[in-house]
Write a structure and sequence with these properties.
The chain has eight helices and nine strands. Strands 1-9-8-7-6-5-4-2-3 form a nine-stranded mixed sheet. The structure holds D-xylitol-5-phosphate (DX5).
Length: 239
């Protein structure tokens, strides 16, 4: 079993490689890793569950084996058949495999299968899926992902309506005393990161607000500082 970071009151800003330079993903990621980033998100899209295509398992193994060393990679599977692709990305070296609840007929079976493969397991929900649909699985999950945009493309606007879902998950995870990350993904920047962290998110995936900036490292650090301050203020670091 991989030794993955557990929620510790420190908010992680997780760069989304979908916004990186596809001709130079390693080159884009390395300065962030050098600056202390230890977690990146690999968006996997099949053109069916979402109307876009992105990243295969070979990118994960390339980054794991000769790209960026110690960085943890989470494979966010926006695919209609996570039962097939989950194990493939686990074998490719993904540290977490995050699948969509809307695409999985038997989440418990897939969680079990992925656990056996030694990866961290997350379930993602699209904007229309209620937070409580994740509650029955939380104790078996390392991560719950609330999409704050309709999945498929970077550069979209953050959906503030998702904040209540984040808070509901934060209350439930704290109530159960779980060490489960609350991750959000989509439209994260220094402003929306404050809203999300105040609501209880502690892992924020950011694409354009990092990679499309003149200085991605300082852009990420700015988001991280803002999010951390907001998280500490609202959650008095219960972890
Ligand atoms: C979209 C992806 C997101 C996206 C985030 O479905 O899952 O990770 O790349 O990009 P921004 O941060 O630009 O919204």
């Amino acid at each position: 079993m991989k030794k993955l970071p557990l929620p510790d009151g420190r908010v992680r800003i997780v760069p989304s490689l979908l916004a990186a330079d596809f001709a130079n993903v390693r080159g884009d990621l390395q300065p962030l890793v050098k600056a202390g980033v230890s977690w990146a998100s690999v968006d996997v899209m099949d053109g069916h569950f979402v109307p876009n295509l992105a990243f295969g398992p070979d990118l994960v193994s390339a980054l794991k084996h000769n790209g960026t060393g110690k960085v943890f990679l989470d494979a966010h599977l926006m695919v209609s058949n996570p039962d097939v692709y989950g194990p493939i990305f686990a074998a490719a070296g993904a540290d977490w495999v995050v699948f969509h609840l809307e695409a999985c007929r038997s989440p418990r079976a897939l969680i079990k299968k992925l656990r056996k493969l030694g990866v961290g397991v997350g379930i993602a929900i699209k904007p229309k899926t209620p937070a409580k649909s994740l509650f029955p699985y939380l104790k078996d999950l390392d991560l719950a992902l609330v999409m704050t945009i309709e999945p498929g493309f970077g550069g979209q606007k953050f959906m503030p309506k998702m904040l209540s879902k984040i808070s509901a998950l934060r209350v439930e995870i704290d109530r159960q005393g779980l060490k489960t990350w609350i991750q959000i993904d989509g439209g994260v920047n220094a402003e929306t990161a404050v809203l999300a962290a105040s609501a209880g998110a502690d892992s924020l995936v950011a694409g354009s607000a990092v990679f499309k900036q003149r200085n991605p490292v300082s852009a990420l650090k700015k988001i991280e500082r803002a999010a951390q301050k907001a998280f500490m203020k609202s959650h008095l670091v219960k972890v």
